[in-house]
Amino acid sequence: MILIRLKNNRSGDPLKNLIDKDPHLKELFELITSVPGVGSATASEVIIATNEFTAITDPKKLAASAVRLSCRGCPF
User: Fold this and answer.
1) Would the pTM count as exceeding 0.90?
2) Three-state secondary structure along 6-64?
């Protein structure tokens, strides 16, 4: 969904414009970038990789995928 929106937005900084226009994306982006050390590139990647946090909702699974660990044998 985000990629389609990015392709259709051609003026200025497409990511900034997209985030500013969508209240849900803006809230997610602000929450993620409030973590020390997390910038706009990382926040964008997390939002895209999790499909706006609909594909991965478990924090442990998100952490495991972020460091590319397999979930085999994990208790969750």
Assistant:
1) no
2) HHHCCCCCHHHHHHHHCHHHHHHHHHHHCCCCCCHHHHHHHHHHCCCCCCCCCHHHHHH
